[in-house]
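Q&A log
Question type: sequence-to-structure
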Amino acid sequence: MTVVMKCDIDMRLKICFVSIGANGSAIAANMIAAGADIKCYDPWPAHVDAIQQKGLFIHLPDEMQNQSIPIYHLCELAETAEPFDVIFMASKSYDTKWITEYIAPHLAHDGIVVALQNGMTTDEIAGIIGAERVLSCVVELSCELFTPGQIQRNTPSKKTWFAIENKKTPYLLEILKLLENAGTVVQVDEIQSAKWMKLLVNSMSLGPFALLGKPVQEGLNTPGMRELILKIGEETQKIGDMLGFTPFPIMGLSENDVKTTNNLPALLMDTLAGHIGPAAQDCILQDFIRGRRTEIETINGFIVAQAKAAGIDAPYNQSIIEMGQKVKTGELELQTENVAYLASLMSK
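Response status: OK
Response body:
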């Protein structure tokens, strides 16, 4: 595992960034502020229009920044003639297939898609453009986007963390340089184990706290909730072990931290909570609030599907799916009392 240091960017590369929502906006802004020539595309028209008119406003814990970003409506990507060498993609995991299909014709024959997403999306992307043209990445970054053209960045650059797959590609070094402007970057060989570790964190920290309608830290401190989410984490870890994924240090943890802990889910959860602000709302809570589709199906749902394929059950993750569906249909509100409901489902 090698830490990457900041250095100059090759301006000859043709680079674009597709789907710059909350996290994508923060990462793209850092790259562009460092001098990178990047064209950005996003499917939310109001977000694009707001940035075109006034730039991107980035609200940090101790300051507010404004960054000019070359941004276009996603449909305008179809008008580009020259292919891109590198395409960063930060879409929701459930949008992976259609966005990959859309960008595929605009990727150079030796180009690479850098997947800055939650979930285990690598195989889905590879099935469309080929395994040699996708670079997997683990991202630790918490941002919020409710108002077009304005993001709340809860994780500052010094606590933002990327793990990039150590794959042979002519653009790997430049990709590492670009990402280093947004946070700490490490190269890893066991990227799928690293992604499963992030999936483990997300299975505990996204859907469960969103169901309470609470920010991560407040949800973690809600009576009875810590015990429940650690059970979910233990279940996810067990399934990962069965699938051959090995415990891997993410979010700045060391190999020794991971090897010596007697409670990996607790270590990961506490590390995450320590890296974000007390008011940070996770991406699933943001989607619930905005009435959007959520990533519960591609996080907890993916875990349940993998468990089923291995011939075992995943009842704790299944409980999150069931509650998420009830919120979607209006049968359940986002409220603290859902702790008791979750406990009852998990006790069956």
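Response note: Confidence is low (pLDDT under 50) at residues 1-7.
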